[in-house]
User: What shape does this take?
Amino acid sequence: MRTGFTLYALVALLYLVSCCEKDTHYSKDDKCCKKCGPGKRMLVDDNCEDPRCQDCQDGEYQSGYTSETRCERQPSCDPNLHFLPQNEPSKTRLSRCQCEPGYYCTQDDDCDTCTKHTVCKPGQRVVKKGSPVSDTACEACEHGTFSTNDSSDICRKWSECKSGYVQNTPGSSTSDQICGEYTVKNLPKKTIEVLTHGENEDVERAYRPVIQQPQEDIDHSVPVSPTLSNLTDNGNYVAQEDGKLTITPTTESNSFS
Assistant: This one.
């Protein structure tokens, strides 16, 4: 008789438990009791069918139905650790911390640390911009392109030297090439050898600096020494008055004592 009653009690208990909705109810003292809804906690469980519930406080949350008397705490997002402050965090779900601009969370599931985004240096470009959950990706500029600023979105092409101009300074990944006017001085020596058909004398002449010889200053106030060209047949000087083109011979006078 006792064995039959025990079996009946077990069957009744299993039936009672199976009748309770696990998400919204719980079993207590052979009864199916109600839980408090999301965003609330249970004050006391003195009334199984109609429990007294209370809203979670600020900074707390409860994501589902519960019979617990305490709510879960929201994470503390400290601005001193580069977290954004939480404005009115939810009471029905977990409000994860977010990093301020320029930083990203190192873990996808739980943001507990903020790390500064990588800065792409000159000579690089940004391939993928950083986000609150990922770092910035950088790439070196290809040959023939350059960037001069941090975190440049693109690498610019080197300037092309127009007709009549040649390269003075070669470009690099961080600077543009500089062009100058076409002159023999800035031509490579190999180019001049081609233009002069390899003549060494012409090549050396092209690179030889032009030296201008100074002209001697002639002082016209100094008398001209007598030469055969300015003497007469008798040995007299040929004198010319200023402003006249006619040359008049002068005769020396002999004095006798």
The mean pLDDT is 77. The helical segments are 2-19, 189-195, 200-207. DSSP finds three helices and 16 strands in the chain.
